[in-house]
Every structure is written in structure tokens, then in C-alpha cells.
Specification:
Elements: H1 2-16, H2 34-48, H3 59-66, H4 76-88, E1 96-99, E2 105-108, H5 120-124, E3 128-135, E4 138-146, E5 150-155, H6 162-175, E6 182-185, H7 194-202, E7 209-216, E8 229-233, E9 245-249, H8 256-264, E10 270-274, E11 286-288, E12 294-296, E13 300-304, E14 319-320, H9 325-329, H10 334-343
Parallel strand pairs: 5-6, 6-9, 9-10, 10-14
Antiparallel strand pairs: 1-2, 1-12, 3-4, 4-5, 7-8, 7-13, 11-12
Helix pairs in contact: 6-7, 7-8
């Protein structure tokens, strides 16, 4: 609404010939120089990044390390490299920097995991009469039964609104109600909505338990945050699944997949099996530099029920089992087989 009124005001002024709209700017335009762009990137992270204390990072020392490398004659290629080296010090997979347009390139901070320990195509060969639930983006949920009357539920992501998962879980749990156990597979799950992960976890809950607190930067000091918000997992939907559950994770279980793991690990019926998750939890809004480059910044401090931050660490499984390339080449998913063995 404010933007609309400003535009109307500009139009009126233009019509009477007294002033140009371009004169109505809120402060001076930021300079588009290598030094100004680097300064803005560093200052925005200094003001907004939520994990300096959690990761024990000295942002000023990082500035002193890289800022002298930026000079008036620094090229775009050189500037991009210096910026990515700066962001790499944060080791945060929710942070990225990209240059749009014909010279498009993208850098992602954080560790690189290949995800070659999981193949959905191989895993789904184990599933008897699989059923798919799709969205406009494609497959979102797949479920069915495994040998020994064990249920299987696979999420591609958790990016739909809770209403979608309410309908999906009603169908899934209605079909799999008579199974003696259930495998929930979130390997390679790239993210989604935390409120959706909270809802789905609630379909396995029997009571109310704290699983996460979140807070967000709201001031110039690295310790300036909003008041913490408490997240609880509690029974949701018409029916819950009360039987044993094995949750499968790997290094590419990320973001909302990890808050889902935090919630599920509060439930006595759930055992996490596989590999540690990626280790990125916070929201990451997008920002733009004067030169048009776009980046993201993690503004939150997300903590598990034990009060610890698992940013850059990930959620460890209770039982660690990994697939090898040889396993997958032979058409076997030994992680799934290990989970199945615990439930049969």
C-alpha cells in the first residue's frame, strides 16, 4: 500500500512538472563498485546472520582477512571468488551467491555431499503395490507395503502446506493401519515447510513434547534476537500411528527434513537409522547487491530440545548404516534392509 501511494504521489508531481519520480528515493543509491559491493555483503551478514555465536565465528577477523583483497580495479571474477571465500568461512549450506543473467553462476557454502548412497528407483523395487501422491511439481509422497507386513512411506520433500499432508497421511495411515511397523524414508529430502514437518511428525505422536526453539536476528549486535518460539510435536489429524517406526536419513536430508528428524526423535516409538543429516536448519531470505548479484543469509538460530544448535553438524542416527556404491550397483538398499530387519 505504501509503495502504491508513493507511485501516485510521484505521478502527481510529474504531471505538475515540479519534480521527477527519480528524485524520491529513500537515501542515496548505493555505489556499484567492487569495494561497495563487498562492504554491503559483509555488513548485511553482520546485521542479519543468526549463527555467529552458535558457531563461534569471528566475523570481524574474516573481514580483515578478505577485505584488503578487494580494490577499485577488482574484476567481477575476482570479486566473486573473494566473496565466496568469505561466505565459505561460515560453512552454511543455506547460504548461496549467484550472478543472474547470461554470465549465470552459483556458489553454495557448506559441505558437498553426493547423495550417491541412495537410489529411490532401487528402494522402490522393494515396495509392493506402491501408490503415489503427486502435486503440480510431480511426485511428493510414495507409500506401500514391504515383505513381512511392514509399511513404507517416502517423502520427496515437505514443501506443500499442512493441508496437503493431512489428506496424504489420512490415506497413508488408513491403508497401512494393519502393518506391524513403518519405515519413514526422508533420505535426499531437500527441504520444505517446518510447519508441514511438524504436522507429519504429529501423526506419530501420543503426547506433547518440545522438539525445537527458533529465534531470529533483530538488531545490530550478534546477540540481538527475537524472543524464542517453542515448537511442539503433538498428536495431529484424525488418527495416529502408534506402532514402531524407523526413520531413514542421510547426508542430503536437509532443512525441513531435519526439523522433522528433531520432532520424530522426541517420540518413543521412533528410531533414526542411516546417516547423519546435512546440518542446515535456519530460514534464509534472499538479498541483492548493487551489482545485481543475489545471495541468501541465514537469519535464525534453531535449537533442538536439548538446547543445542546442530547447524553445520546435523542430526545423528541412533543406528548408523550406510549403502556403498557396490550395494547400489547390485540393486540392493542395505539401509532399507537393516530397517526392515528391525521391524519384521
Amino acid at each position: 500500500m505504501k509503495s502504491f501511494l508513493i507511485k501516485i504521489f510521484c505521478l502527481v508531481l510529474l504531471l505538475v512538472g515540479t519534480i521527477a519520480c527519480n528524485d524520491l528515493t529513500l537515501g542515496p543509491e548505493p555505489a556499484n563498485t567492487p569495494e561497495a559491493n563487498y562492504e554491503m555483503l559483509w555488513q548485511e551478514f553482520d546485521r542479519m546472520y543468526g549463527q555467529f555465536e552458535a558457531k563461534n565465528l569471528d566475523w570481524s577477523a574474516i573481514y580483515k582477512k578478505y577485505r584488503p583483497q578487494v580494490k577499485p580495479g577488482t574484476t567481477d571474477d575476482e570479486l566473486f571468488k573473494i566473496m565466496t571465500q568469505t561466505l565459505g568461512e561460515l560453512n552454511d549450506g543455506h547460504i548461496w551467491l549467484l550472478t543472474p543473467g547470461p554470465t549465470y553462476r552459483r556458489y553454495d557454502s557448506g559441505p558437498v555431499y553426493t547423495g550417491d548412497d541412495f537410489s529411490a528407483a532401487i528402494t522402490q523395487k522393494y515396495v509392493q503395490e506402491p501408490k503415489e501422491l503427486t502435486t503440480a511439481e510431480g511426485l511428493n509422497v510414495l507409500y506401500g507395503k514391504l515383505p513381512g507386513n511392514v509399511g513404507y512411506l517416502y517423502f520427496v520433500d515437505l514443501g506443500q502446506n499442512p493441508g496437503f499432508y493431512e489428506r496424504a497421511m489420512d490415506e497413508v495411515l488408513g491403508t497401512l493401519a494393519d502393518t506391524k511397523g513403518l519405515i519413514v524414508d526422508v533420505r535426499n529430502l531437500g527441504g520444505g515447510l517446518d510447519r508441514s514437518s511438524q504436522y507429519v511428525a504429529g501423526r506419530f505422536a501420543s503426547d506433547r513434547k518440545l522438539f525445537m526453539t527458533t529465534r531470529f536476528r533483530n538488531g545490530p549486535q550478534h546477540s540481538d534476537f527475537t524472543s524464542p518460539i517453542e515448537w511442539y510435536v503433538e498428536p495431529t489429524g484424525k488418527k495416529q500411528y502408534p506402532k514402531p517406526v524407523v526413520l531413514l536419513t542421510n547426508r542430503l536430508t536437509q532443512s525441513a527434513g531435519e526439523t522433522f528428524a528433531l520432532a520424530m526423535n522426541q517420540l518413543p516409538t521412533v528410531t533414526q537409522l542411516g546417516d547423519t543429516t546435512y546440518g542446515i536448519f535456519s530460514d534464509n531470505p534472499k538479498r541483492e547487491l548493487p551489482n545485481g548479484w543475489i545471495y541468501s543469509v541465514s537469519t535464525g538460530d534453531f535449537r533442538a530440545a536439548d538446547g543445542k544448535s546442530y547447524e553445520g553438524i546435523g542430526v545423528s542416527p541412533r543406528v548408523r548404516v550406510l549403502n556403498t556404491k557396490e550395494d547400489l550397483a547390485a540393486g540392493r538398499d542395505k539401509v532399507l534392509e537393516a530397517a526392515l530387519g528391525r521391524l519384521q
